[in-house]
Sequence to fold (466 residues):
Amino acid sequence: MYDTHQLRAAFARSLSAMYGREVPAYTTLVDTSTAVNADYVAAHPDTAERLGRIDRVTAERHGAIRVGTARELARVAQIFAALGMEPVGFYDLRGDEATSLPIVSTAFRPTTPEALAINPFRVFTSVLVTDDRRYFDAALQAELDAFLAGRELFGDDVVALAARAEAEGGLPDADAEEFLRAATACFELTAEPVDRAWYTQLAAISGVAADIGGVPRTHINHLTPRVLDIDDLYARMSAQGIVMIDEIQGPPAWEGPDVLLRQTSFKALAERRRFREPDGSVADGTLSVRFGEVEQRGIALTPAGRDLYDRMIAEVDARAAGVSPEQKDAVKKDVWRAHLPASESALAQAGLAWFSYQAASVRPGGEPPSDLVSLVAGGWLVATPIVYEDFLPRSAAGIFASNLDSAGSRDVSRAGSHRDEDWLAAAMGRTVHDPMALYAAQRQASLDAAASALGIEIRHTAAGER
Ligand code: OOG
Ligand code: NI
Fold:
């Protein structure tokens, strides 16, 4: 029997093996990440595991996939449900970025600290918005919808096995192995030919639209390992002759705590694909849509912390318009030093980042105080940062943009179509979790357990702690 968590870990391994066969540079990225992490742990034995145990971090991956319709989204959601991965968050990438991205997204991931600790596999999943008139006129939408309705990305057999695994909390060995094989195959690059004219027509609007709606099958777009030092990783990949995008997205390297998510990638590589030409013949060609991404995770920010992050990024943009990547990094560092508290405890006291709390194993004598700040300061409670388990839409848009050949085109004079988390939830028939509610619940559960261990009630609101 494979339980839900074993299925998830096995699926992450199976997808990783498949993607490594398809994209050899991914294997280089994984090997280099593993070396970076081992060296980091050796150099910082006391602090390296503050944001996750090394075995979790080494196995940790996120994937990205893109589907075309609500029905395809619902079926892939069923596959992820079998793996204990639930939709978390709503991301609208149609915003006002320079690149044309006619998609909205969610992330499928485990939602409890226990499940995340076993295997935190997550998949950023985007769905095409075919009725958005800024991108597709009525005639093209009709053609696109008909094309998408005519394909089946996730067959009945694999979806049925997934439903059984979800209902029964796992699968017997033979069924589990069949499910893992079939689910992995759903994300393999197909040898079926791509209709050249159709793909090109969509690519003129959006490279992502073509990658989703211009092809008969889907594929994993990238798989991302996690590193403890992304600057070191960047340098080592460049030294091996792999061309990286020119920026690390998100927060800068600085002396204070790492928050949220830093990401970078190597450029999409030309891959052999087969094309059906307008004259009906089939010929070899190439497409460059799949890239290699890597990330470093930091502490999750509260809504107040997230507002501050967004303001800092806006300030960086205003001050760093048109400068080189190195200069931009220096501006980021400046802005971070000016606004973000430089220690974990200052972040916690300002209510900017999420922490969980545990009763100290060795406690001071006497009566414990009742407010959180005094409990931590007095050595009664130990604070542990909660790792950011989600994504950053702006970094996502930046990653998309730096890997597309052209920015595409759209008609901003037209109104977009409405999408929100309720639309996503209805499309899947599943709850879309609010990431902030998950972090808050994790913090609260830890406080409840600590309070009962100390036999007290804890007041949460002292000294800015929210
Ligand atoms: C997803 C891009 C977003 C990330 O790490 O932010 C993403 C895609 O390329 O489909 O994976
Ligand atoms: Ni990614």
